[in-house]
User: Fold this.
Amino acid sequence: MSQIIIGFTTEGPTDVRFLSSIIQRTFVEVGFECSKEVEVVEPVIYIVKDKGDHFNEQIIKCCQKAFENGVMAFCIHADADDESDDHAFKFRINPTFEEIRAIKEGICDNLVPLVPIQMTESWMLADKSLLKEEIGTEMNDTQLGLARDPESVNNPKEVIAEAIRIARQSLTRRRRKDLDIGELYQPIGQKISLNKLEKIPSYNKFKEEVRNAYRKLNYLQ
Assistant:
């Protein structure tokens, strides 16, 4: 049996809670495509970015720390903050990855970009039934303002927060309790079906990059 140690870095702490399980489960699922059995070593290693540095400097330091921790495939999360990922790849991801691969020694250069269109919360909208279950409402998508394609939503975080507000208002005062979007990241990240996420183009792009990481290790043809 072969092993793979994976690591990741994100833009913020809420992204960690949502993405950690998704990253691990995606590597496990793609691992079944390999010609021999692959064990995804737990836990997934999270590396905190140093504040104050430019994006490329932050990621280079993370990749050096990843190498020190034995990471064999390192995921770099960066929200597109746009309706496409073109700008993020052209000005952040691709130039930084070129810098890292030029260093050659003492750095993890098996890199997996993870770039949600708009922001991470768009992936939370991939399974609206699960989202409504976690919010605790039986209202429909239209009533909650969720009846849109996830990656077409300009600010999915605000849309989810508004859906929570609408759902809470529909309850009687005795049943109503405060719910913050921050409470949803971890349970949705753990429960969301990867099949549901495959409806999201940016997730499929990430999944193909996971395949490329396995190919660089000669685990996958």
Summary: The chain has two domains: 2-117+200-216, 122-184.
